[in-house]
């Protein structure tokens, strides 16, 4: 079941895909028999401070941090990228950085630098939505499949926005047609009434002359 909401949902396919994203982390202590979690590790155990990547769902247990691993915020959510977003957020290809950029970022807000990350997500979305509005107002047959500038949520907003814009444009066109039709009918009736009034006036004058 696909849930359009972006609040973590156990049954949402989108949320499953987001939480499946592998995140860099390190072991906070030696962990026996867990060496298989690191595909590059040949030992049966994980050493303290060992670097590896694990799915987000494994690092987050019931909205709490996994006590055995310390998560490292991915580079695309760090202050270095924040400056890039500030310079020109519309130029950044978010879809190429991560298909679920906003969803992943919101999931990471409960970890380190949550407030700064939330602010960065808000500012980036606020800036990019302007370009998204312009894109929706110029609906075309452009194929967005290969457009790496838009990530998943932006694509959904584009689909809704472009469809709404097209419906509004169709409504305006239909209304204009109806208005023109109404004006034509009104003008036709008016001309017909003027003709009838003219005929009645001519008949009246003729009958007066004949009575004389």
UniProtKB/TrEMBL annotation:
GO terms for biological process: mitotic DNA replication initiation. It comes from the Eukaryota. This is DNA replication complex GINS protein PSF3. Keywords: DNA replication, Nucleus. The keyword Transit peptide does not apply. SUPFAM superfamilies: GINS helical bundle-like (SSF158573), PriA/YqbF domain (SSF160059). PANTHER family: DNA REPLICATION COMPLEX GINS PROTEIN PSF3. It comes from Culex quinquefasciatus (Southern house mosquito).
């Amino acid at each position: 079941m696909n849930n359009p909401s972006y609040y973590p949902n156990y049954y949402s396919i989108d949320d499953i895909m987001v939480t499946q994203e592998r995140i860099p982390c390190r072991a906070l202590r030696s962990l026996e028999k867990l060496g298989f979690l690191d595909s590059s590790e040949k030992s049966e155990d994980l050493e303290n401070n060992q670097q590896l990547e694990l799915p987000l769902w494994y690092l987050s247990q019931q909205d709490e941090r996994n006590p055995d691993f310390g998560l490292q915020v991915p580079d695309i959510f760090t202050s270095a990228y924040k400056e890039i977003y500030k310079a020109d957020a519309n130029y950044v290809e978010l879809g190429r950085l991560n298909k679920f950029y906003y969803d992943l970022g919101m999931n990471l807000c409960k970890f380190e630098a949550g407030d700064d990350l939330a602010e960065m997500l808000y500012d980036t979305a606020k800036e990019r939505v302007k370009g998204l509005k312009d894109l929706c107002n110029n609906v075309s047959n452009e194929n967005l499949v290969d457009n790496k500038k838009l990530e998943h949520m932006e694509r959904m907003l584009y689909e809704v926005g472009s469809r709404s814009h097209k419906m509004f444009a169709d409504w305006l066109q239909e209304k204009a047609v109806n208005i023109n039709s109404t004006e034509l009918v009104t003008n036709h009736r008016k001309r017909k009434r003027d003709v009838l009034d003219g005929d009645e006036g001519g008949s009246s004058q003729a009958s007066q002359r004949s009575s004389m």
